[in-house]
């Protein structure tokens, strides 16, 4: 599809500087722009590209513009990053949605499917499953018995949703994620570790997105809950009976142990480890590769392993880097003191 600068500006309420008939047929990163492509500049550190980019049209935040004309066509907006997101969403909608049941999909006779639903080939829909209107279930998905999937969801190929789990409206689950696998529960006995049955489920509330190759374990009794609007990156493990609140973002390779409770609007970096049976407040920021082994209050910033206040960690790290010199200075002081005592 091709679009003119004028059409693009109308979608995002932008002001054109340059040729309003300039056309684009693709998009590029600003660092490697191409003729006939669209890109954006939202930050000061990329502002030099406004003069040098080969892109035919650039969306630029107004605060970065200092001239009346530029070598390429510019669309001035308040927030270029947000405007570019709007355009990407519009383009995705224009591509259309699939609907209907493909050959090879297997349905139990008691399953219920809403209107305008797509189910791909070789997907298995078990007994008493309910799938809401407008949802997209891609090929080779397994949906266990009594699972409920809400409206306008997207479940990509290879996802496994175990029995009795609940997926809210507008959720996205990426390929090869497993929702509702058994929690890691074993009782030590004289004969070895005996498995504890995991009888609960997983609940994803509305507007949750789960990345690829994640595992979210079912509760032992009760539910593992992912709150409304929470976004989970790839390769994340969430253990049984964890409760995660609303609008959290959790980066890749994080592991959260059982029965931990996490509040709202937290930011958790990549490769963070969080022990079980603790409480993380709201608006907490946990830096990448931190190991959290105790509860955190609202608005704390944690860093390190074991994780402590980020500012304290950085101050102490300066001393740690100079630790050899500090020890040498102490030894020198002790030696000088002994020498003076001997005199």
Automatic annotation (TrEMBL):
CDD domains linked: LbH_LpxD (cd03352)
Protein known as: UDP-3-O-acylglucosamine N-acyltransferase
InterPro entries: Hexapep, LpxD, Trimer_LpxA-like_sf, UDP_GlcNAc_AcTrfase_non-rep
Native species: Kaistella jeonii
Active site per UniProt: 240
Domain of life: Bacteria
Alphabetical list of Pfam families matching this protein: Hexapep (PF00132), LpxD (PF04613)
NCBIfam families noted in UniProt: lipid_A_lpxD, PRK00892.1
Keywords in alphabetical order: Acyltransferase, Lipid A biosynthesis, Lipid biosynthesis, Lipid metabolism, Repeat, Transferase
HAMAP family to which the protein is assigned, alphabetical: LpxD
Pathway: Bacterial outer membrane biogenesis; LPS lipid A biosynthesis
